[in-house]
Amino acid sequence: MSRSPDDPPVLPKERPRAGAVRSRLMLEVASELVSRPDQAARQARVSLRTQGGEGWELTLFGSDSVLGAPAVASGEVTFAIVNPATAIGPAVRGLPPFEHPLDLAAIATIPSHDQLGFAIAARHGITSLDELRVRRPALRLSLRAQPDHSVHTVVDHVLGAVGVSLAEIRAWGGTIRYDDDIPDRGARAAAIRAGEIDAVFDEGTYNWIDLGLLAGLTFAALPESSLARLAAMGYRRSALSARRHPALGADVPTIDFSGFLVYTRSATADGVVTAFCESLVARADRIPWQGGPSLPLDRIASDRIDAPIPIPFHPAAARFWAAKELLG
Question: Does residue 268 sit in the same domain as residue 151?
């Protein structure tokens, strides 16, 4: 017997529950929305609960700022992300801006190779960042506009390690402006080219080193004593590469800004962590990273140069990756 278009569809015996249908619709639409070039709102925070439950039991936050770490430590957020991975170091040590150590554990790190850059106009004659204390230049400094970006916390720590602060830069007659996006884009790039900015402290350096050099900026090195202080806080030393950017002339010592660390609190139940890891592996081919269209599972748990694991794994995550022979 032929079917009419108006007949109800024949349903399979095994089919998703109604609650899963509704939630997956929203999750898949959200996934598509954050991929659209015309969509400005792209940071996701997803909360899950037993249908009709009073509280939200599981929250996944596509964050970037280390300032979200207290929410993870308190259990308000179950899983979050921070870039750079090593910015979690001060949080687990209870260093400012954190009032006490936070009990956090690693899940994995999405690779992203990057360094922090301190670019200052060549006319100021500063080749090492600790020379700021002596020369006290009246900088016209550009920082990232996003107020909770981890770069602000990291820059504060680096300046502290060389014995200066943003407040002192202002006191010397300097001005600080907060500009949207990374330095090679839009009005910020135009201001650098026009000489309206004579200092930039920011990450994503591979995007803007050459722009800065062409605009007459030089990249100040971090002295060994400061790198040692920062290492004690949990950061890792690195260098801007003259091989990648020949106009630098020589490698410039700085600190690493690599990796998107996925983390949770140490008290998160093993079953919750295992389910998260299983889901991550199951959907890896749908999760892009900066090196391709799907996550490189062989790199995310092995403490690589572009994917640091700066704090211990959650025990359930360690067991999961070890069983997959992916643990570094």
Answer: no
Extract the tokens encoding 144.
């990232």
The verdict on 216 and 231 lying in the same domain is: yes
Asked whether residue 22 is domain-assigned, the answer is: no
Provide the residue range defining the domain that includes 248: 117-255
pLDDT digits (tens, 9 = 90+) for 212-256: 999 999 999 999 999 999 999 999 999 999 999 999 999 999 999
Nearest in space to 252 (alpha carbons), one of 151, 127, 158? 127
- Euclidean distance between CA atoms 246 and 239, whole angstroms: 13
Q: What is the CATH number of the domain that holds 235?
A: 3.40.190.10
Determine if residue 143 is left, alpha or beta; phi over 0 gives left, psi from -120 to 50 gives alpha, anything else beta. Answer: beta
- The answer to whether 142 touches 152, Cβ cutoff 8 Å, is no
Q: In this structure, what are the phi and psi dihedrals at residue 199, rounded to the nearest 5 degrees? A: -155, 140
Query: Could you give the CA distance from residue 89 to residue 68 in angstroms, rounded to a whole number?
Result: 13
β-strand 140-144 against 175-179: which pairing, if any? parallel
Neighbours of 18 (CB within 10 A): 9
Largest CA distance in the chain: 91
DSSP 3-state of 184: coil
Below-50 pLDDT ranges, the chain? none
Which residues are within 8 A (CB) of 199 and not within 5 positions of it... i.e. 6 or more apart?
118, 119, 120, 121, 139, 140, 141, 142, 217
The answer on 273 and 222 residing in a single domain is no
Residue 242 corresponds to which tokens in the numbers above? Answer: 């003259």
Rounded to 10 degrees, the C-alpha dihedral 223/236/256/325 comes to 160
